[in-house]
Amino acid sequence: MKLYGIKNCDTVRKARKWLDANKIQHQFHDFREQGLDQDTVAKWCQTLGWETVFNKRSTSFRSLDDAQKSDLTEQKAIALMLQHPTLIKRPVLDNHSTIMAGFKEADYQAWFTK
């Protein structure tokens, strides 16, 4: 299981703390430092929908110019997320068969008690 995010993001910290407290083994991938590849981001978008993965509420989105913000498609969103990883809703938890974006304790609890 891999948790993707940025180490200084508060939501990522909460997710990591929850996983550690519940003794759930995971590998952390800081995509600001370690990067991301197109196949990974495309997989997330295919599984969750690009609108879920692409964080329009982020400071990064607000700082984009109008041309970048307009006429968004999945391909354009993926390209922007690869260029600006902070546009990705964090964290992304990927266990190869299931993917979850964001952190809500109740959602994690439900996922791991199945």
Question: What features would you describe in this structure?
Answer:
This protein has a single domain, classed as 3-Layer(aba) Sandwich (Glutaredoxin), CATH 3.40.30. Helices cover about 45% and strands about 10% of the residues. The chain has seven helices and four strands, in the order E-H-E-H-H-H-H-H-E-E-H. Helix 1 links the parallel strand 1 and strand 2. The radius of gyration is 14 Å and the shape is globular. The model has no long low-confidence stretch (mean pLDDT about 95).
Task: List its salient traits.
single chain, 114 residues, alpha+beta, Glutaredoxin, four-stranded mixed β-sheet, 7 helices
What is the fold's blueprint, element by element?
Elements: E1 2-5, H1 10-21, E2 27-30, H2 38-48, H3 50-53, H4 59-63, H5 66-69, H6 74-83, E3 92-94, E4 99-101, H7 105-112
Parallel strand pairs: 1-2
Antiparallel strand pairs: 1-3, 3-4
Helix pairs in contact: 2-6
**How does the overall form come out from the CA principal axes?**
globular
Helix content: 40-55%
From the 3D coordinates, which CATH architecture would you assign? 3-Layer(aba) Sandwich
* Spatial order of strands in the largest sheet: 2-1-3-4
CATH domain class name = Alpha Beta
Rg result: 14 Å
Number of helices: 7
Assess the beta-strand content as a share of residues: 5-15%
Q: Give the mean pLDDT.
A: 94
The low-pLDDT segments are: none
Q: Structural class, from secondary structure content? A: alpha+beta
Number of domains: 1
User: How would you name the CATH homologous superfamily?
Assistant: Glutaredoxin
Q: Could you name the CATH topology?
A: Glutaredoxin
First CA to last CA: what distance? 16 Å
Describe the oligomeric state of these chains in a short phrase. Answer: single chain
- How many strands? 4
